[in-house]
Design goal:
- The protein is of the alpha+beta class.
- The chain contains 15 helices and 11 strands.
- The strands form 3 sheets. A 6-stranded antiparallel β-sheet has the order 3-4-5-6-8-7, with helices on one face. Strands 9-10-11 form a 3-stranded antiparallel β-sheet. Strands 1-2 form a two-stranded antiparallel sheet.
- β7 and β8 form a beta hairpin.
- α8 packs antiparallel against α11 (302-318) and α8 packs antiparallel against α15 (373-387).
- It is globular and about 55 Å long.
Length: 388
Amino acid sequence: MPSNSVESVQAHGVLDHGAASAVDYTLPIDDEATLSQANGTEAVAQTPLLASSPAMALIAQRPVTASPEIQTPRLEARAVHIVENRTPTESHATPASATLQTTTRAMEVSALTVQRIGRYIIEKELAQGTTGKIYKTWDPKLDRVVVLKTVQYGISTSAAEIAALKDRIYREARAIAKLSHPNIVIVYDVDDQPDFSYLVMEYLEGHDLKQVLEREYHLDCGRALEIVAQVCSAMEYAHRAGVFHRDVKPSNIMLLEQDEVKVMDFGIAKISNYLSLTQTGRVLGTPSYMAPEQIEGQATDGRADLFSLGIVLYELLVGRRPFIADSLAALAYKIVHKAHMPPSLENVELPLELDEVLNRALAKRPDERYQNATELREAVLAVRAKLG
């Protein structure tokens, strides 16, 4: 997803005023997600409620985006809520400044998409991938902005298959929603519509590591190690709870202020993979970051996540992934059979101890890797401590 095409969003949060460029919010089975804007416009029906608000005349003149697969009742109350529920500071402003603030906010509100999925009011479509769409939405019950991610059923999926898919999606979502850790994005809700299920997630502001790498090429060694140590903490917690990520990659690792880490999409790759029961061509994970056992279709556990995290660490330190090829077949062969170049040969400023750390993290056989995230975190922090 082109970084200049979407607002910066977590799970991702949105920066509404251009404070940061876009975050790549890819669906878990894609190397890249593609953006889509729905076509069509509708006039907003005027009501006494609209007429009673000082800013609604602006909204009534603006078109709204229509999307055929989503319920589209009129939800002008969302706009009224935003415009009229001003902060105490705004309420004590001078008449002229208050009018300006109200008019400015009304212009922002007028651009919102007045649609909903379930109770969630859609403000913007953020991305589209092979399994569904991602939206910035507002939860009117709890009065907060959230991110909603759909998992679309196949056109040819039978009613029995849909029922089985829903059951699996709900079970996985419940496991993810139980995770409560400062380095893991929160899942708030799961529900379904006739053609898709959806998950509702925490809204955050920041940048993902893919975006950071595109801007900075590679990171300072100490900073990279501190970021990966936080990811390890998230993995420790989730793995102990029996939840594996299966799609660790830079675009699923978000940086907030002061490099606080939030890992996104725990278990989402598995949810998407349920569609492979009725659809062909699905891949569990992102090929460039897969462990050998994932590529070979073998049983996986938390050690596959650690291999993927090893690839991320290598990329943060060197500026490129350890395994690169011109085709998926060649890439798969390299990951399964070929050794990586030691990072100290790619970046001479790196300490030799990192060669040993990454040799173990990227071992082809799971029993030769770090056996849990705690071991990898301790190894990373030991190197960090020597840097001073």
